[in-house]
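Pasting as-is:
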Amino acid sequence: MTIRLRAHHLLCLLTYVGKGYSPAFTANYDGIAERLSRGEDILLVSGPDDICAPLLDEPEPHCLRDSASARDQLAARDVEDLLARPIHAGARLDLDAATLVRMRQAFSTGLVRKACEGCEWSALCSTVAAGNYRDTRLQRSAETENCPF
């Protein structure tokens, strides 16, 4: 199966530790992190994705706001530069262990954090990164063997 993700969620996944907007949101996110940890691939989408799904029944879901789209654009540019490959709706990505380590290193140094400015979760994500991504839900087996943190 394939997991549908918007670009800024490529960054959010790096530090996800089981906290979220609601129990339904975190249960869904836990499932996505588990599937990615098992090696499912990613299809990049424009707009709400599989992570957003539990929020779409709200009267005015924040995932439909312009700020979410702006975060997607910033994240896509940063990740595209980092990985030297196109990051746009319709592109596929395998978040293998080496890519995950590379993205977490770039996140820790601030190289791919433009999309995080003004995000309510930014402080938590900074704390998780400073703690060497301990307790994150997304893990790839080879990552722990080769992790420089």
